[in-house]
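Translate sequence into structure tokens.
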Amino acid sequence: MAVFLLKRHRACRCQFDIRSRNPCPRDPNVTRLLDRLERRELIKRERQQRDRRVITTRITPAGLPILSTLDEPISALHQRLLGHLGPERLQILNDLLEAARVSKE
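Result follows.
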């Protein structure tokens, strides 16, 4: 799903309070991963002016070919995990997830 959202919107906006999950994080895994991707110029991060806690992460043109290599493995994973639901139930699930996402924006 995250890969789909990155491709669809070319951005992933995440807000979370790391301290509520781990009182003494030394170097959060997500931050470390994003640091590596940014050094390789595969993503670009921008801190929002209105709320400095919000960082928008965008895939760069250099990152798109790498991202596309995930299409087949992610589709296979989704099929393995959710294929038993069938098209109708998957559409219902998708509609519910979309409604939950929209209500949080």
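Note: Residues 86-104 form the longest helix (19 residues).
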